[in-house]
Amino acid sequence: MILVRTKHTPSIAVDAGRSPMGGQPPVAFKGVRSRYARLGNGLAGLARSMTTMLSRSSQPALVLEIDRRIVKFSDPVTFEFSLKPRTEFPLQRAARLGDWPAEDLERMAAKIRTVEQRFAEAIATSIERPEIIGSLLRGLNLKLFSKDHGWREIITALNRCGSEFDVYKKIALVKYTQYLRARQKILRDLYFERRGTESMDSSTQETKVNKAVDNLQAPHDTDLFESSLKVARREDDGFGALPRGETVCLKFKGRTEMAIRLSTHSFKLVAGANFCLKDEHGSSFPIRRGKNLVGRHPDCDIVIQPFYSGVSRKHLIIEQVSETEALLTDLSSHGTYVSKQSF
């Protein structure tokens, strides 16, 4: 039903799916029905845009002191945009790591992995209980935040803000995890450069990488570099990485199932009234209503077997919103990958 009002006439209710004379609409009404349907879709889109704009404008402006300067952010969107350059690892820092031996690079990566897991848990908790994001952020030791790009200074300033700025705190937490991922990528590239992998053929490279990871990684933890190396080789296969910590709407667009990768491991997300996740061995995991945490940790809603070594302990959150759409939030170390046409 669409409500149409012109300047000088009363409101007219038009049911775009039925004929005013009953039965199937005559040919003369098909064009009218089509026009009103398009009008209705346009009005619905306008309503969604207005809702988004109003929600943004309802957020208070944020004023922080960064690098000894007072900076004002008019809304969360502006704040998020300003943090995007800070998600990259500084080139000067990367240059200083150029002379580090591979073992030192691996040890640094292991420390960052531990920090990443702490932040992944905080983000997962904040999604379930957004009202506690402030206490979660204050509970993280400031030493976990790098001084790069003024991150420690930004977090310190946000911790002084009240609960009305919680949306800004969530954005900062998500963007910092993206900075950690960029930092791990630099360490990975330098590590394999030290190991001389670029000069080896793929089979020899795989063997050497496996031995290095077996010797260096902690037991029961995801591999530090092997999975990310395999992912890097598959960047042009039509799959795109979900941005870490950000919720993305996945649309099936007429399909009943969709290929999805957790790190390098192939899964399928099956749509319909009862969503489910299938692994490459055919095992099916039903997705309940609400948020479903996927990972190797036994406390997850969907527990992935330990032999999927590239899957993080808390890898991904899946939430079904309709029979053809689902919300995905990546929390992982090695990433979640879906078809680039799906989001």
Write the layout of secondary structure elements.
Blueprint: E1 2-4, E2 12-14, H1 27-57, E3 62-66, E4 69-73, H2 76-83, H3 91-96, H4 102-128, H5 133-139, H6 151-159, H7 166-194, H8 202-216, H9 226-232, E5 239-241, E6 247-251, E7 257-262, E8 265-270, E9 276-279, E10 284-286, E11 291-295, E12 302-303, E13 316-320, E14 325-330, E15 336-339
Parallel strand pairs: 11-12
Antiparallel strand pairs: 1-2, 3-4, 5-15, 6-14, 7-8, 7-15, 8-9, 9-10, 11-13, 13-14
Helix pairs in contact: 2-7, 4-7, 6-7
Task: Give structural notes.
The protein is α+β, with helices and mostly antiparallel strands and 343 residues long. The protein has helices at 27-57, 76-83, 91-96, 102-128, 133-139, 151-159, 166-194, 202-216, 226-232; strands spanning 2-4, 12-14, 62-66, 69-73, 239-241, 247-251, 257-262, 265-270, 276-279, 284-286, 291-295, 302-303, 316-320, 325-330, 336-339. The chain is 41% helix and 19% strand. The protein has a six-stranded antiparallel sheet, with no helix packed on it. A five-stranded mixed sheet has the order 6-14-13-11-12, with no helix packed on it. Strands 1-2 form a two-stranded antiparallel ribbon. Strand 3 (62-66) and strand 4 (69-73) form a beta hairpin. The model is unreliable at 1-23, 49-56 and 198-222 (pLDDT under 50).
Distance between the termini: 30 Å
Percent of residues in helices comes to 40-55%
Mean pLDDT: 78
User: With helices defined by DSSP (H or I, 4 residues minimum), what is the helix count?
Assistant: 9
Alpha-beta content class:
alpha+beta
